[in-house]
Design a protein that fits this description.
This protein is mainly beta and 369 residues long. It contains three helices and 16 strands. It has an eight-stranded antiparallel beta barrel. Strands 9-10-11-12-13-14-15-16 form an eight-stranded antiparallel beta barrel. Strand 14 and strand 15 form a beta hairpin. The longest helix has 20 residues. The chain is flat, with a radius of gyration of 25 Å. The N and C termini lie far apart (59 Å).
Length: 369
């Protein structure tokens, strides 16, 4: 009997220790109302700014408490999903419904929350040559959308209920998927409530000494990447064309959070073929023959901001080979990358632009040697 009690006690203790090591998954829900204005970032959209956009934001947050190393290094951020509805209060713009993935970062004893979200939106009234030619902001129903939210936050004030208020900026653009593409930016004031599920069992924040960030440094690694998608020039009616980008670059991870990159991009942007032909005929004063090469070759330097297996990518490049003067020689790339299989394979979604002028959304895969 004593042996049985001993074994049973060991089992209970082992189960208790195992339970303590099991990751919990606390969740909070949010609902907001917002009221704002469309910013006139481009005089071409002045006729579209006639009212004050209003809307609702609903969010799902997975709360972190330091179970994983990356959570402790970033002071317990949240990740989650957002749905946003916006009435733009303009007869030509109509309404927009967006869905996003987001991250929350906290500051000042977790009373200030900064949220960044990236996703897609559906515009109810895009440009149409016959029925809605005044909407030169959205050339398609589907848009790329980014939002930034900065709020004063008080969570779990009473039985899981909390309050937050601040401002939100929502950007809609189709990244030249289809012309026209002048985009909109809404600046809005927002306020709302939150509810923390299982608030009574929310775990204590784990404070633990992790290894030095520099111990995650790696030797130089060689990378090959292939990116593709479709886009269109700013000339309405020239049509959508596929593009292809082949990249070779080296990276050097210096610590847990940062990796530096440098390399070469080769662009096969077939929409430029049609644009070159069109301009050589429509604008003979440009001196184009119509036989100019549509390919471009650029060199770039960049940085990756790592969050566990996810990285925020930022690159700045310069076209060494630029036979047709499209936009300018300096370009930039921003986006997200996800690593798989011990960081040897990666997938990425990035925006290729010339400063604030988007050229294309790129969908890419790559191999890291």
């Amino acid at each position: 009997m004593r042996h049985f009690l001993f074994v049973f006690t060991v089992f209970l203790l082992s189960y208790s220790l195992f339970s303590q090591e099991k990751e919990l998954k606390p969740v909070s829900l949010e609902a907001d109302f917002f009221y704002g204005s469309i910013l006139e970032h481009n005089p071409d959209i002045q006729h579209l700014i006639t009212g004050h956009p209003t809307g609702f934001i609903f969010s799902f947050n997975r709360k972190s408490y330091g179970f994983n190393e990356w959570e402790r290094r970033y002071h317990y951020p949240d990740w989650g999903f957002t749905a946003a509805y916006q009435d733009l209060h303009n007869e030509y713009l109509g309404n927009a419904l967006g869905v996003y993935g987001h991250m929350n970062w906290y500051f000042f004893n977790r009373h200030l929350m900064l949220r960044i979200g990236q996703g897609i939106a559906y515009a109810s009234s895009p440009f149409d040559t016959n029925t809605n030619y005044n909407n030169n902001a959205y050339g398609s129903h589907l848009l790329s959308s980014t939002f930034l939210k900065a709020n004063f936050v008080r969570e779990n004030i009473w039985k899981g209920l909390g309050f937050h208020a601040g401002f939100t900026i929502i950007h809609y653009s189709n990244a030249n998927l289809k012309a026209p593409n002048n985009s909109t930016n809404t600046f809005a004031l927002n306020a709302g409530i939150s509810y923390q599920l299982d608030y009574k069992e929310f775990p204590e924040y784990i404070q633990k000494e992790d290894s030095l960030s520099s111990t995650h440094a790696e030797r130089f690694k060689f990378n090959l990447a292939f990116r593709t998608g479709i886009n269109e020039s700013d000339v309405v009616g020239l049509g959508q064309e596929p593009f292809y980008v082949v990249s070779a670059f080296v990276d050097k991870r210096i610590n847990y959070k940062s990796t530096f990159t440098a390399g070469v991009d080769v662009y096969f942007s077939t929409f430029l073929k049609e644009l070159i032909t069109y301009r050589s005929i429509a604008y003979p004063e440009d001196g184009l023959s119509g036989d100019e090469d549509y390919k471009r070759v650029g060199v770039f330097v960049g940085h990756e901001w790592r969050f566990n297996k996810v990285a925020f990518v930022s690159q700045l490049g310069y076209y060494l080979y630029w036979p047709y003067a499209f936009e300018n020689r300096v370009y930039n790339r921003l986006g997200l990358k996800r690593y798989f299989f011990n960081d040897r394979i990666f997938a990425a979604v990035t925006l290729h632009a010339h400063w604030a002028k988007a050229e294309a959304v790129e969908f890419g895969i790559g191999y890291r040697l």
